């Protein structure tokens, strides 16, 4: 059985007082939490600098 990780929105500061808990495989949680943070919490998307290519910028 795949191990599940838990992400609790209360652990992160957010202006909408979100109390959502996201649970699932790490890969799933990462994917959903990123989208959730951007769409619901109003976080900005990660810049392209996040990629491994550091030759630019
Ligand atoms: Zn949230």
Fold topology:
Elements: E1 5-8, E2 21-24, H1 26-39
Antiparallel strand pairs: 1-2
Bound molecules: zinc ion.
Keywords:
two-stranded antiparallel sheet, 2 strands, 25% helix, binds zinc ion
CA radius of gyration? 14 Å
Number of strands: 2
**Strand-and-helix sequence, N→C?**
EEH
| Tertiary shape | flat
Tally of structural domains: 1
Small molecules in complex: zinc ion
Number of helical stretches of at least 4 residues: 1
Distance linking N and C termini: 42 Å
**Strand-residue proportion:** 5-15%
> How does the helix and strand content classify structurally?
alpha+beta
Spatial sequence of strands, sheet with the most strands: 1-2
Query: In percent, how helical is the residue content?
Result: 10-25%
Largest sheet: 2 strands, antiparallel
Give an account of the 3D structure.
- The protein is an alpha+beta fold and 57 residues long.
- The protein has one domain (5-44).
- The protein has 1 helix and 2 strands.
- The protein has one helix at 26-39; strands at residues 5-8, 21-24.
- It has a two-stranded antiparallel sheet with strand order 1-2.
- The protein is flat, with a radius of gyration of 14 Å.
- The mean pLDDT is 82.
- It binds zinc ion.
- Residues 9, 14, 18, 20, 36, 40-41 line the site of zinc ion.
């Amino acid at each position: 059985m795949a191990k599940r990780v838990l992400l609790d929105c209360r652990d992160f500061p957010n202006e909408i007082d979100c109390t959502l808990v996201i649970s699932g495989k790490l890969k799933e949680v990462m994917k959903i939490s990123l989208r959730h943070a951007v769409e619901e919490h109003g976080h900005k998307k990660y810049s392209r600098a996040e990629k491994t290519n550091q030759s630019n910028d």
